Amino acid sequence: xxxxxxxxxxxxxxxxxxxxxxxxxxxxxxxxxxxxxxxxxxxxxxxxxxxxxxxxxxxxxxxxxxxxxxxxxxxxxxxxxxxxxxxxxxxxxxxxxxxxxxxxxxxxxxxxxxxxxxxxxxxxxxxxxxxxxxxxxxxxxxxxxxxxxxxxxxxxxxxxxxxxxxxxxxxxxxxxxxxxxxxxxxxxxxxxxxxxxxxxxxxxxxxxxxxxxxxxxxxxxxxxxxxxxxxxxxxxxxxxxxxxxxxxxxxxxxxxxxxxxxxxxxxxxxxxxxxxxxxxxxxxxxxxxxxxxxxxxxxxxxxxxxxxxxxxxxxxxxxxxxxxxxxxxxxxxxxxxxxxxxxxxxxxxxxxxxxxxxxxxxxxxxxxxxxxxxxxxxxxxxxxxxxxxxxxxxxxxxxxxxxxxxxxxxxxxxxxxxxxxxxxxxxxxxxxxxxxxxxxxxxxxxxxxxxxxxxxxxxxxxxxxxxxxxxxxxxxxxxxxxxxxxxxxxxxxxxxxxxxxxxxxxxxxxxxxxxxxxxxxxxxxxxxxxxxxxxxxxxxxxxxxxxxxxxxxxxxxxxxxxxxxxxxxxxxxxxxxxxxxxxxxxxxxxxxxxxxxxxxxxxxxxxxxxxxxxxxxxxxxxxxxxxxxxxxxxxxxxxxxxxxxxxxxxxxxxxxxxxxxxxxxxxxxxxxxxxxxxxxxxxxxxxxxxxxxxxxxxxxxxxxxxxxxxxxxxxxxxxxxxxxxxxxxxxx
Length: 732
Ligand code: GCU
Prior knowledge:
Layout lengths: L44 H8 L3 E4 L4 H18 L4 E2 L9 E5 L8 E5 L3 E5 L2 H17 L7 E4 L5 E5 L2 E6 L3 E3 L19 H12 L4 E3 L15 H12 L4 E6 L3 H4 L11 H17 L5 E4 L16 H12 L5 E5 L14 H4 L2 H9 L10 E6 L23 E6 L15 H8 L12 H6 L9 E5 L15 H12 L5 H13 L1 H22 L22 H4 L5 E2 L17 H8 L9 H4 L2 E2 L10 H24 L7 H33 L20 H26 L7
Parallel strand pairs: 1-2, 1-3, 3-5, 7-10, 7-16, 10-11, 11-12, 12-13, 13-14, 14-15, 15-16
Antiparallel strand pairs: 4-5, 4-6, 8-9, 17-18
The chain binds alpha-D-glucopyranuronic acid.
């Protein structure tokens, strides 16, 4: 393979790890396809002997998930030892590892212990599968089999992933909405065509304990329910079922019209109700354990019950009742804004703020949805901005099943170019205390049905998966999926533990600490130059990648005298007042409001004094520069890993970091120029001014040109990296 212009040994002066510290120099190239399921050969003789003892296997229990667990065990042991596994009779003596289904354990839970032999027990086939992956993870992390003793069960019952894959490539959004690193992994022209990627993807999901997958865009096309799709959907469901994953699809609310030929999609019309019942029955005849539908209705131009003067509850009921007899779930999305809500909101200011919209659309419907409806709420209220506080709606609907929706697709976080690992942010959201009433409970407890009288819901995330050979476009974006799955299973895991686990599984013990510390710092660095203090929406309006603060003055609340949105109850839109009183008070006061959402809740003068004595504008300038410097540091750190990581994966990340530096500079220069132009307050350090001849200080049109030039360059590089990392078997 070709690595152009980036292979320098470098002095590694900024790196925490020197080449010498790594045990292997230039390990064999890897594409990243195996992700964290690599099972590399173990050379240490003692560890090797311990692993050899795990080759003799016995098993009680059967079913697809049990067979998959054994399959995975065989694959891993062969990888670690180079030897085949020997399967013994269930009651035979001499097994080094016993797989057991034990109904006394929680259904999806497992227990691993060693008492002369290793026992992996699961409460069901799925539990056993999760236990097997957990045991293999421990082995890959270097835990001695004899030291293994762990019992675990998932915190949240439904742990989903939502693909935004298009059945037909969209001219603007591409093959997958908001994913730029590659195209859909699904061959929509014929889903029945065997593709090993489907199985390997199912393995990845199972290894993280994810148990549901919705395969198509929420901006759904009716064709997904075309009877011609059924054999393909069935084939996919058959593959994913073996790994404990139930299939769901997103549907178009207007399907009775667009697909069924009816004159209306009114959810109260008997013909419409009958059409949904028949369509759903056909689906379940082919896929008896089908998971259900995801619906984006009355949102961003999508059809919905509002088109017929019906409420979200009425719209959902028609679909939920078709699914209920089969045990299907309806995930009804709450990402709704733009309607005139002045009748429901306390004042015009509240009605004018998008952050309030979902709350005022849905709060009054609490307790009215059918039992199999889960209201799917984004983790934050305006959209998936880099740092928004957790959505207040989670504290407002204790009698409704709720799903917490994260976004792995790096729509606002630098797409396939920037490293911005959201693990720490997600952990904060999951652990944010929000449950109403006595006893409290955090967001993870609310959606788990473990807070007061809250009902069990789900956690989900918009996927970042694509057909790049490394699955994500940017190799290290795999850390996002990894973190999501691990936190969905156990929201109390420390993010720093998750990043270390991931780094070690991906690159081995030598570079793990260095890679993990880079991941840990990456999100804050990205926020500093793209979304300082929770400002948000400073990007260009279509692709959400390049900076364009000029077009977002109103959204970000930027005026000559200051910036940020006043969302306090006293003088602003009142969104802060929707939180339980403790949080409401903290957010409403500039002296207690966390800095990362200061400008989300407050409109402040440019010269507002920050805690450290700097003016706000100076803190903005400094943050932009610090963020870029941090990224430079990341590249230097990565340079120091040369030789510790195989050349292919090393060069891939190095190239991405080089691009990130350029784009981060682009963000820094545009934002600083914009802040200076708007505020008239110069940088204390004189790092730039409006007269500077440097290309970074050009007038706005000049900046636009600079962004265009950058974009063209990125597209060329994307094509080059893409060509190198594309999956030969992938669908293009
Ligand atoms: C954002 C995103 C859209 C997406 C929408 C949603 O607005 O930009 O691409 O469709 O969220 O979550 O429905």
